[in-house]
Design goal:
single chain; mainly beta; Jelly Rolls; Ferric Hydroxamate Uptake Protein, Chain A, domain 1; 3 domains; 5-stranded antiparallel beta sheet; 28 strands; elongated
Length: 380
Amino acid sequence: GPHQGGKLRQGTACLSALPGVSAGNGCGHTLLTPHSGTLSSKNYPGTYPNHTMCCWRLQAPPGTSLLLAFGDVDLEPSEHCAHSSLLLADPQTGTAYGPYCRNSVPSAPLLVTNSSTVTVLFNSTSHRSGRGLLVSYATSQHPEGVWMGGSHDPPLTMCFSVYCPAGCKDIHGDIWGNPSQGYRDTSVLCKAAVHAGVIADELGGQVTLSREKGITLYESAFANGLRSKRGSLSEKRLLFHKVCFLLSPVCDDVLEIVAFNASSWWHEVDILGQDRAWVAKQAALSTTGHSWAAEPSAEAAWLELDLGTRKNVTGIITKGSSEQHNYYVTSYHVYSSRDGKNWRPYRGSSGRDKVFEGNADSQGEVSNAFIPPIIARYIR
């Protein structure tokens, strides 16, 4: 009958899902890595679709075990969760957890397993309501647990540390503020950590932050592929730090650039016949007037910064030309060199040459973090 057919489809999809991979037509936002990850049902937090399923196979390194955090399990209730359900299976020990739905939710928000492999199966039939599910995981190397939700849920101490899983950038929820001011305390904490550049979304990681007195207005900023919102007064705010007991900011030094070089520069003659040289030294962020620009016909243009000696470079800020000239760079690659001759592309944690998201207008500043940092004298 139909019930047996459903079982067969589930089993087939779970068998075909490789470790660290999802399979099925009910999978939503998913990022699975060996050390942490985030997964959700299709359309989350909107109503999940009828007659869908998804199977995720989580695989941690040998010798570690998986910790699962239930951010949200909102599946329409039914007897024994027969219509829509979340089921977890530990193939190494033969243990099963669930099935879960709205009238049978996990007893604790964090599930500690004894296995490095867990299969997560989501299944739906006909229903009318339900947000679906949002689940994250980390390994037992992070005993303090895995975090994903709003910042009002962590410990109430002024200073605390949590582990944010990979994949938080694209989960539902808003952030207000920026790295220098801090973030409104109602911001989604791990999403704010990606915006602040303290973790890479594709890796996740430990974050340390303090809860400080709120401020009147939180300014919007575009950073690390995320735009925060402009927000009003809050009672508390969140600030990210290198370590808690020193309360040191994540980054507080602007590196001095000894010299600028470029592939070419634009020698402009304006409508009044006056010369304007868009030379490389005009690229400094604090420069008044026009900026650097490559020769208009140039392909693969580059700008090069000489820091004088090898430095630890943790990020870059870009801005458009000026309010008078509506020019800006929408995306770019980064290369580094220790001698100015041999250049290495920045690949970040993905292993591929990273494309950084740049500006969308000529006025705003856009920040991008280097995780891991670059150690070099020259940046191109």
